[in-house]
Write a structure and sequence with these properties.
Elements: E1 6-9, E2 12-15, E3 21-26, E4 31-37, H1 41-60, H2 63-79, H3 81-92, H4 96-120, E5 124-127, E6 130-136, E7 139-143, H5 149-163, E8 166-170, H6 176-189, E9 196-198, H7 203-212, E10 218-222, H8 225-237, E11 241-245, E12 251-254, H9 260-272, E13 284-288, H10 292-303, H11 318-333, E14 337-340, E15 356-361, H12 366-369, E16 376-382, H13 385-392, E17 401-404, H14 407-415, E18 423-424, E19 442-443, H15 448-453, E20 456-462
Parallel strand pairs: 7-8, 7-10, 8-9, 10-11, 12-13, 12-17, 13-16, 15-16, 17-18
Antiparallel strand pairs: 1-2, 3-4, 5-6, 6-20, 11-19, 14-15
Helix pairs in contact: 1-7, 2-4, 2-5, 2-6, 3-4, 3-6, 4-5, 9-10
The chain binds NADP nicotinamide-adenine-dinucleotide phosphate and magnesium ion.
NADP nicotinamide-adenine-dinucleotide phosphate binds near residues 145, 147 and 170.
């Protein structure tokens, strides 16, 4: 795979300050496919300076012109769609179809939505005798994970650009090639030098330097709750704005009035997609006691349609594979019943995990509480709706969820859930709906106008 051996700073590829590199591995065959530079605090500092220098000009650029640049960026991404998909397959292991439709397709949609929003959003509002100005926060430090490498980048960069902010991006060490491709698209789209900057590197070095940098006004982080907590503390100490998109342990609540087979099948597909490496995946399936055995049989049959290597790719790294296998073993040790899959690696080569279904999972078990981030579903039994609600809300997380059943009942149930988004009877993903977490799933929202709002601060003028 083609890789740049520098950082994209101030509108050009510049050599890194240090000589360390990161090896990028293809998780399907465990081969090293490229090396990228491992940035240091000095690289981060150069990037933040470039972003600061570019900020006044970009903030003063009329929203319609910013919108035109985002639209150009969208077009550059669309032109590279196949290359993006191939790169995501190579460094994340995503099956080709998923890589094309979701990993490459979704960011194009999100970029398009912000090109439109930037042009139509009202950056000024009247409140009685005041005019409220919505102004860009400043320089954004964006830190992203590997699970949706391009989507996570675009979900931060597009709204920040729309708001008039400039950025420095530190992408995940496992998926830096997609980030480099994105920087190429930014360059070709003709964004002014310094508006977007890329520093590849390790989290505790480059990521931490970015979060701590006094020249950064807002840190937008997507990743684990453990790192998010640290970044929140760092930002808090500096009285800096922060947005955190963190982990999840979402519930798929199947009410007795639901189409059981559909709810189970869509629920399994939701978790198997991206090998279970989706923060909003419905990893806990909640089924009424009278339908429980039938649901377990349906789930076991559904999982058989996801053979590793075809519809289900490997996990991103050996570390993630070991982590997920450890959770499967923990589930067995705590008394859950494996009805499909298990802790044996299904292939000799590649970081694969067998799609796994656990029955007889009780709410207190580790596999019902902690985020596994792999192709593992836990099926829990509930007595009645109040019991289902207690179980659904009974984790530290609150990112997403699903409810299936007669529509009015499903909506009434969803209103009582402590979570940021709920799909009713298989409702489609909406790239303009706010995305983000309740409780320890995060602070702030991404996507649509709510996502844009994160990058704005308000000033009121009284008349
Ligand atoms: P992670 O370890 O928290 O990493 C996320 C990003 O933070 C990476 O770029 C990472 O760099 C960087 N990082 C690590 N330590 C850092 C530090 N001390 N200071 C600053 N940056 C640091 O998470 P991950 O393993 O990549 O991703 C999986 C987790 O992300 C899961 O828990 C998942 O639920 C969550 N996630 C949440 C959402 C959401 O929208 N809510 C979306 C996707 C993923 P390295 O790559 O070098 O480690
Ligand atoms: Mg990490």
């Amino acid at each position: 795979m083609k890789a740049h051996d520098g950082m994209y700073i101030g509108g050009m590829w510049r050599p890194a300050v240090g000589a360390d590199t990161i090896a990028v591995v293809n998780p399907a065959d465990e081969q090293v496919i490229a090396h990228v530079p491992a940035g240091t605090a000095e690289d981060v500092d150069a990037a933040v300076r470039a972003a600061r220098a570019a900020f006044p000009g970009w903030a003063a650029t009329p929203p319609a012109e910013r919108a035109a640049k985002i639209a150009a960026l969208r077009d550059e991404l669309a032109e590279r769609k196949e290359q993006i998909a191939r790169t995501v397959t190579a460094e994340l292991g995503a099956p080709q179809q998923l890589a094309e439709t979701v990993h490459a397709g979704l960011p194009i949609m999100v970029a398009a939505s912000y090109a439109e929003l930037a042009a139509s959003y009202s950056f000024e509002e009247k409140v009685g005798n005041s005019t409220v100005l919505l102004e860009p926060v400043g320089v954004v430090g964006a830190i992203t994970p590997w699970n949706y490498p391009l989507h996570q980048i675009v979900a931060k960069v597009a709204p920040a650009l729309a708001a008039g902010c400039t950025l420095v991006l530190k992408p995940a060490e496992d998926t830096p090639l997609t980030a480099q491709l994105f920087a190429e698209a930014v360059h070709e789209a003709g964004l002014p030098a310094g508006v977007f900057n890329l520093v590849t590197g390790l989290g505790p070095i480059a990521g931490q330097a970015l979060a701590e940098h006094p020249g950064v006004d807002l840190v937008s982080f997507t990743g684990s709750t453990a790192v998010g907590r640290q970044i929140g503390a760092t930002a808090g100490a500096a009285v800096k704005r922060v947005a955190l998109e963190l982990g999840g342990k979402s519930a798929n609540v199947i009410l007795p009035s639901a189409d059981l087979a559909r709810a189970v099948n869509v629920g399994i597909a939701n978790v198997m997609s991206n090998s279970g490496q989706t923060c909003s995946a419905w990893t806990r399936m909640l089924v009424h006691k009278d339908q429980y055995d039938e649901a377990v049989d349906l789930a076991a049959a559904a999982v058989a349609k996801y053979p590793p290597g075809e519809r289900v790719g490997p996990l991103v790294s050996a570390k993630q594979q070991q982590r997920v296998l450890g959770y499967i073993e923990k589930g067995i040790a705590e008394g859950a019943r494996v009805v499909a899959g298990g802790s044996e690696a299904p292939r000799e080569t590649g970081y694969y995990v067998s799609p796994t279904v656990f029955a007889d999972v009780t709410p207190g078990m580790t596999i019902a509480q902690e985020e596994i981030f792999g192709p593992v579903v836990s099926i829990l039994r509930y007595e009645d709706e109040d019991d289902a609600l207690r179980i659904a809300n009974g984790t530290v997380y609150g990112l997403a969820g699903a409810v299936w059943g007669e529509q009015e009942d499903a909506v009434a149930f969803a209103r009582r859930m402590d979570t940021g988004q709920v799909d009713i009877n298989g409702g489609r993903f909406n790239p303009r709906a706010p995305f983000g977490g309740y409780k320890q799933s995060g602070v702030g929202r991404e996507l649509g106008s709510h996502g844009l709002g994160e990058y704005l601060q308000t000033k009121s003028l009284q008349f």
